[in-house]
Amino acid sequence: MDLNQRLKDRVVIVTGGASGIGAACARRYAAEGARVVIGDLDADGAAAVAGPIGGIAMRCDHTDAAQCQALVALALQHFGAVDVLHNNAGTGWTGRFGDMPGEAARRLLEVGVMGPILMTQAALPALRRSAVPSGGALLFTASGLGLHGRPMIAAYAAAKHAVLGLMRSLALELGPEGLRVNAVCPGIVDTPLVRATTGGWGPTEQVLENFRLGTPLRRLVQAEDVAASAAFLISDDARNLTGTALLVDGGAHEA
């Protein structure tokens, strides 16, 4: 199979696609032939990613049901279908649990859990109508922290555990309809979001180096590594995978 055509003509919505993992995924999907629709709070950043890959973008807060519906409507208006939804948007916070402001915890759970729920509800009717022979696909960006814990990041880990619970339940519920539901679970990736939210662990460069040294492969995961795995999960190469949480962490969970 020509990997450049593996996602040919599939319409893929990516939330949080203005930077980091979402941007890398959008670019990878387009490189494999997909038509990409990006939703992000950063409208300019989303447009900057979408333009060079022939995609479209709009400002979208996925915690607002109406904006989720508008993003799906944009995809249908321009491309006539939605074949894949990649729920990628998220946020983070690090620090001692007792020091976390209630509003920060509320926002983290709203963005990390309610956002994917509302976005999935908005896209589901269109996904059910996908003409892709192997059926429509849902993908969540979860985390290795959805499978285990780590100090100083309890609320984020709770959100990612919830995302994996949602993914697994939807895989069982939607499987008989031909819809596949999976998650990609990155380790620590050097992205703008990670740099903005890991201050509770210490100086950013030292945090990233510590994670690199704690990985058996001694390589920090790159956004492009996650994108390669995500493209596999939404492609026909993974047509018999559903309910799968694919770890992309360089073996850090074994260390």
What does this structure look like?
This protein is an alpha/beta fold and 255 residues long. It has one domain (3-188, 226-245): 3-Layer(aba) Sandwich (Rossmann fold). Helices cover 44% and strands 14% of the residues. The chain has helices at residues 20-31, 43-50, 65-79, 102-128, 154-174, 192-197, 204-213, 223-234, and strands spanning 11-15, 35-40, 56-59, 84-87, 137-141, 180-186, 245-248. A 7-stranded parallel β-sheet has the order 3-2-1-4-5-6-7, sandwiched between helices. Helix 5 links the parallel strand 5 (137-141) and strand 6. Helix 3 (65-79) packs parallel to helix 4. The mean pLDDT is 94.
Layout of strands and helices, then pairs:
Blueprint: E1 11-15, H1 20-31, E2 35-40, H2 43-50, E3 56-59, H3 65-79, E4 84-87, H4 102-128, E5 137-141, H5 154-174, E6 180-186, H6 192-197, H7 204-213, H8 223-234, E7 245-248
Parallel strand pairs: 1-2, 1-4, 2-3, 4-5, 5-6, 6-7
How would you summarize this macromolecular structure in one to three sentences?
With 255 residues, the protein is α/β, with parallel strands linked by helices. Helices cover 44% and strands 14% of the residues.
- Could you give the order of the helices and strands? EHEHEHEHEHEHHHE
Beta-strand segment tally: 7
Shape: globular
Question: Termini distance?
Answer: 35 Å
- Strand portion: 5-15%
Q: What average pLDDT do the residues reach?
A: 94
* Rg over alpha carbons: 17 Å
Q: Based on the structure given, which CATH architecture is correct?
A: 3-Layer(aba) Sandwich
Low-pLDDT segments? none
The top level CATH class name = Alpha Beta
> What helical percentage do the residues reach?
40-55%
Helix/strand-derived category reads alpha/beta
Q: What can be said about the biggest beta sheet?
A: 7 strands, parallel
Alpha plus pi helix count? 8
